[in-house]
């Protein structure tokens, strides 16, 4: 494909609820433009955009995918994104690269959660919104039901551009108000159709369209009120200006599966959607191919054949094979890899990627998603990609011992590709922890580990990092004496153990008269610090403890550092059971967001998890949502992400971070202690 200037490029992201026909519509757009020689079907697993093996197995998108096509001397980059909330990272990537979003809904449905989220994401990102209502050919289709639900939510900005003309229960033709023409379709082929003249609903929609267009310009408004028809050029100008200003969100009826009115959407994208030159500029950086180089890496893929592929949107300047690949984050300059244009799972060679366009650069080792590529020593830094934070942690259990390193390498690779994945190793519990956006998300990670890296794992609930402390002050002796030929060992200490506030350990001494020589004090402290790593109840570290060395004795020959270190450990072992030890469990700070109708249900769920509600009220960033603040034991949060999503139908989200430790209830403590004993016995 040849290179296009920014004014002839349209970057469109397709977003919306799962199962609404995004990929099908994208495949139809590619097919009718001759970018593909066959119409891919999701159900057949032969689409250009759902090319991953896991996508073919699930028959749905799980990652963003990009392909381009030419239409009326214009290059259109379409970014197909997943509709399942577990794979929302793909939507974040698409929103960062696009200049407008085409929100896809199914005819007959009302405004769904996926569409709401896409609209909000586009609003937050500051890009223009368009709507496609697909599946108008379906048996239970009802375009106007869907249209009315959108208009009810978003008001007069919702503007019909292409609507179906229905006789009985069947779509007879599609009316394009931008040209005041009607078309019928058979086997994907378009033919002219008569304009519905006496259809009240169609006429009402056309009046709404003309009024919306006229409102974008004072001269057009004047003509409108005088009853003077607007010309095609005036309609195009008004519609484009309205979309660019965010005053108009056009709505198109279509059937991707039957190739109906898809060409009208392509026409409108060319005529009315904002071009890259109009919307790609960021801050002081103008979308100019002759300007300073500035490109954002919005997606990273590790391809088994091509290697690492970094997807860039060029904001300013141009990228060629001779361009130094300077990474603003690292300060490193790399040799430019191969330059490609994406076509789903395949690529096309490119000689240059101009400002406003999207392309791939291979084998850039230092670049990560969110990095800025610019001229060497340039201070240009572009805004990164706003990914949702992972919220469901699970422990990784390797099925075959000895493959832990392979698993770690695979997870690091996957986490580099998908920034909604977090991978860490908990040094305390000795578990590999993978966090994602939901159960399906993590399930796909497990499958990729098997298929791409040849390792099989199970996911289990992560162990909780409990702590132990004491509630009673005790004074005990620790005496270590060993004599077995040659030099012996002798250490004798009296130590006072008591509880202190906080989660630290304090060592003090008040030895009088040199009963314990000062040079052995560090050995006593070292012995205690090693001992507190394992508490008396369930073997968890002891916190909130002060140990005061106040007496003891020594031997002029047999006393040494090791002897006093051992004596300190003996004192700890003797004293802790006497000090009324208690198990502490970690609490986290929860901030959950949900519609007001769901507040009571979520509050009840938090209470069942032994959580304490600290406050609630309207969310500052989103007035339609309520914020619930609570403290909840971390051991109780395992399936909260799933429950919140289920109760709120996907609208809810939350953050949860560790806050403090506090004493566990007796029944909880006893259960933890018993489980620890069983685990110790198994070892």
Task: Kindly describe this structure.
With 683 residues, the protein is an alpha+beta fold. The protein has five domains: 6-210 and 248-279, Rossmann fold; 294-374, Translation factors (Elongation Factor Tu (Ef-tu), domain 3); 392-460, Alpha-Beta Plaits, CATH 3.30.70.870; 468-579, Ribosomal Protein S5, domain 2; 586-668, Alpha-Beta Plaits. It has 17 helices and 33 strands. The two termini are 62 Å apart.
Summarize this structure briefly.
By secondary structure, the chain is an alpha+beta fold. The chain folds into five domains: 6-210 and 248-279, Rossmann fold; 294-374, Elongation Factor Tu (Ef-tu), domain 3; 392-460, Alpha-Beta Plaits, CATH 3.30.70.870; 468-579, Ribosomal Protein S5, domain 2; 586-668, Alpha-Beta Plaits, CATH 3.30.70.240.
Spatially, the strands of the biggest sheet line up as 2-3-1-4-5-10-6-7-8-9
**How many structural domains can be distinguished in the coordinates?**
5
Inertia-based shape: elongated
CATH architecture of the largest domain: 3-Layer(aba) Sandwich
Strand content: 25-35%
Q: Characterize the biggest β-sheet.
A: 10 strands, mixed
The residue-averaged pLDDT reads: 93
Distance between the termini: 62 Å
Uncertain spans, ≥5 residues at pLDDT below 50?
Answer: none
CATH superfamily membership of the largest domain: P-loop containing nucleotide triphosphate hydrolases
Q: Quickly count the helices.
A: 17
CATH topology of the largest domain: Rossmann fold
Q: Please state the CA-atom Rg, rounded to the nearest Å.
A: 33 Å
Content-based structural category: alpha+beta
Helix content: 25-40%
What's the number of extended β-strand segments?
Answer: 33
CATH class of the largest domain: Alpha Beta
């Amino acid at each position: 494909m040849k290179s296009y200037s920014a004014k002839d490029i349209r970057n469109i992201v397709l977003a919306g609820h799962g199962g609404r026909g995004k990929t099908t519509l994208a495949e139809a757009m590619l097919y009718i433009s001759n970018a593909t020689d066959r119409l891919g079907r999701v159900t057949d697993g032969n689409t250009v955009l759902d090319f991953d093996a896991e996508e073919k197995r699930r028959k749905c998108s799980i990652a963003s995918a990009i392909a381009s096509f030419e239409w009326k001397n214009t290059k259109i980059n379409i970014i197909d994104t997943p509709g399942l909330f577990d794979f929302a990272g793909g939507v974040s990537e698409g929103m960062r690269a696009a200049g407008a979003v085409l929100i896809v809904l199914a005819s007959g449905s009302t405004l769904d959660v996926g569409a709401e989220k896409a609209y909000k994401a586009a609003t937050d990102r500051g890009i223009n919104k368009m709507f496609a209502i697909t599946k108008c050919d379906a048996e239970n289709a009802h375009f106007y039901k869907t249209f009315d639900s959108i208009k009810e939510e978003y008001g007069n900005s919702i503007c019909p551009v292409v609507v179906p003309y229905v006789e009985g229960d069947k779509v007879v033709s599609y009316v394009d108000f931008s040209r005041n023409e009607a078309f019928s379709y058979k086997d994907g082929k378009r033919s002219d159709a008569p304009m519905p003249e006496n259809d009240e609903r169609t006429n009402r929609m056309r009046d709404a369209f003309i009024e919306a267009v006229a409102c974008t310009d004072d001269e057009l408004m004047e003509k409108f009120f005088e009853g003077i028809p607007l010309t095609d050029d005036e309609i195009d100008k008004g519609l484009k200006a309205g979309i660019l200003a965010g005053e108009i969100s056009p709505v198109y009826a279509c059937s991707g599966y039957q190739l109906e009115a898809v060409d009208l959407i392509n026409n409108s994208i060319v005529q009315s959607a904002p071009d890259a030159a109009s919307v790609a500029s960021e801050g002081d950086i103008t979308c100019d191919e002759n300007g300073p180089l500035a490109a954002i890496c919005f997606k990273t893929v590790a391809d088994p054949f091509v290697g690492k592929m970094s997807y860039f949107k060029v904001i300013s300047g141009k990228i060629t094979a001779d361009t130094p690949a300077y990474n603003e984050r690292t300060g490193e300059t790399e040799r430019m890899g191969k330059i490609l244009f994406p076509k789903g799972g395949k690529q096309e060679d490119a000689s240059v990627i101009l400002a406003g366009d999207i392309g791939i650069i291979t084998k850039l080792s230092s670049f990560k998603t969110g990095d800025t590529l610019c001229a060497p020593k340039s201070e240009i830094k572009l805004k990164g990609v706003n990914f949702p934070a992972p919220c469901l942690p699970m422990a990784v259990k390797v099925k075959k011992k000895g493959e832990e390193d392979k698993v770690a390498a695979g997870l690091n690779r996957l986490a580099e590709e998908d920034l909604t994945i977090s991978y860490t190793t908990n040094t305390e519990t000795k578990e590999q922890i993978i966090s994602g956006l939901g159960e399906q998300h993590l399930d796909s990670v497990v499958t990729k580990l098997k298929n791409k890296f040849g390792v099989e794992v199970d996911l289990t609930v992560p162990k909780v990092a409990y702590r132990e402390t004491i509630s009673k002050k005790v004074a005990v002796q620790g005496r270590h004496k060993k004599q077995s030929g040659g030099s012996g060992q002798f250490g004798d200490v009296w130590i006072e153990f008591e509880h202190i506030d906080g989660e630290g350990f304090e060592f003090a001494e008040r030895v009088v008269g040199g009963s314990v020589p000062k040079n052995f004090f560090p050995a006593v402290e070292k012995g205690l610090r090693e001992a507190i790593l394992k508490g008396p109840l369930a073997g968890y570290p002891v916190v909130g403890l002060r140990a005061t060395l106040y007496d003891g004795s020594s031997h002029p020959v047999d006393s040494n550092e090791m002897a006093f270190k051992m004596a300190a450990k003996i004192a700890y072992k003797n004293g802790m059971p006497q000090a009324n030890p208690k198990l502490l469990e970690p609490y986290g700070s929860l901030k959950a967001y949900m519609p007001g109708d769901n507040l009571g249900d979520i509050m009840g769920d938090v209470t069942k998890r032994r959580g304490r509600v600290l406050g609630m009220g309207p969310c500052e960033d989103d007035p339609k949502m309520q914020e619930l603040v609570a403290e909840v034991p971390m051991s109780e949060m395992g399936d909260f992400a799933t429950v919140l999503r289920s109760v709120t139908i996907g609208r809810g989200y939350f953050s949860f971070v560790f806050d403090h430790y506090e004493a566990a209830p007796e029944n909880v403590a006893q259960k933890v202690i018993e489980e620890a004993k069983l685990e110790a016995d198994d070892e």
